[in-house]
Amino acid sequence: MNRRIVFALTGTLLWLVPGTALAHGALEGLGDFYAGLLHPFVVPSELLAVVATALLLGRGGRAACRAGTVVLAVGVATGLVLSAALPQPPDATPLLLATALAAAGAVTAGLRAPLWLAVGVAAVCGLAVGTDAVPEAGAAAGRLWSAVATVIGCVALATVIAGLTLGAHLHWHRVAARVAGSWISACAFLYFAMLLVQHWALWTAGGAVGNSGSGG
Amino acid sequence: MTRARCGIIGFAVCLAAIIVAAPVLGHTETGGAGGFSSGFLHPVLGPDHVIAMIAVGLWGVFLGAPAIWVLPIVFPLIMALGGAFGMIEVPLPAVETGIALSAVVLGICVALALKPPLWAAALIVGIFAVFHGYAHGTEMPVASDAVSYALGFVVATGLLHLCGIAFGGLAKWPVGRIAVRTAGVLIAFAGGAFLTGMA
């Protein structure tokens, strides 16, 4: 079959499969395995971080792809275990978006990260995804099953994107990778701008409360 | 079936799937401006945004390489900067006028098939990107899921650029070139209608 048709069909399926998938709540109906497997695909911050990291690994060459995907898998597993041990897992969204911004920024600028840096970014990304994707309360077997599926889903996504980037020999392939990097960078930048606004609003509200309290 | 025809059919199927597919929403969505769908629909449902983004793609075709791929890479980044200005509420006068003016100026550039130096084209597009981003950004602080909202409007903007580039591909043929330049005239007129309040 023509490769373009395969790509077109795969793209179509990727767009159709998510449907109205909602992170957490609505994924419960899918069962533990599929809820875990789809987690990196349906949570935007995880998706952006994994895709950006995979683009960076793909541009880093074959060695970066090999080491990076393994480190990513280990990172996700470590993050899942550490978060499961904590009573209240921290919000990993800022770390996910920071990773996405750094990796996508490098891809947009056309930079090739050295092996140690690309693998380091993969490790941080894996830890953040694992922390964010920790299964919610349920039976131990179900949570374990969901966690294993998250590792598989995350590594599969990263491997496909990194492989496509690694095999990008045509000019427009490389341009497409940089456009993807640009879009991810823009999203991450906007998130941090919004975070800044929220913190500023909280700080000013706190100041106002403090002033009214001292005045009363 | 030729490879080119397969590619066109595949692209059309993907585009149809994008339009048909229900939105993918991370976490819960509350409020009018929450989530991917709100972000995606914001540029798409604003005709002034739509024509300006398509004009950027059309103009990129006339400018040729490297502008045709530099503009879609740079535009979202500058638009994000404009979005940040909007969120922080940096005073920016006449945002709606700037957006309408962007359609007029970019439409004229397409209609006349202007080819200024890359830095000048990037400057023109960059200035207008700030206005477009500002308009999106002012709606973002009320969004419950900022990442989904940002992803939605960045993807929508990028797809509109791609629509412009795809249509601009007709300029390879003499008749197509006339069609693309006519589109530029129509965009300029539509921008003028927004600018004068007729639309």
From TrEMBL, chain A:
Alphabetized Pfam families for the sequence: HupE_UreJ (PF04955)
Presence of the UniProt keyword Transmembrane in the record: yes
Membrane-spanning intervals of the chain: 33-57, 69-86, 92-108, 115-134, 146-168, 180-201
InterPro entries in the record: HupE_UreJ (IPR007038)
Top-rank lineage group of the source organism: Bacteria
UniProt KW keywords: Membrane, Transmembrane, Transmembrane helix
Protein name: HupE/UreJ family protein
Organism, as annotated: Microbaculum marinum
UniProtKB/TrEMBL annotation, chain B:
Alphabetized InterPro entries for the sequence: HupE_UreJ
Keywords linked to the UniProt accession: Membrane, Transmembrane, Transmembrane helix
Transmembrane regions listed in the UniProt entry: 50-78, 90-113, 119-135, 147-167, 179-198
Record-given protein name: HupE/UreJ family protein
Keyword Transmembrane helix: yes
Pfam families named in the record: HupE_UreJ
Organism, as annotated: Microbaculum marinum
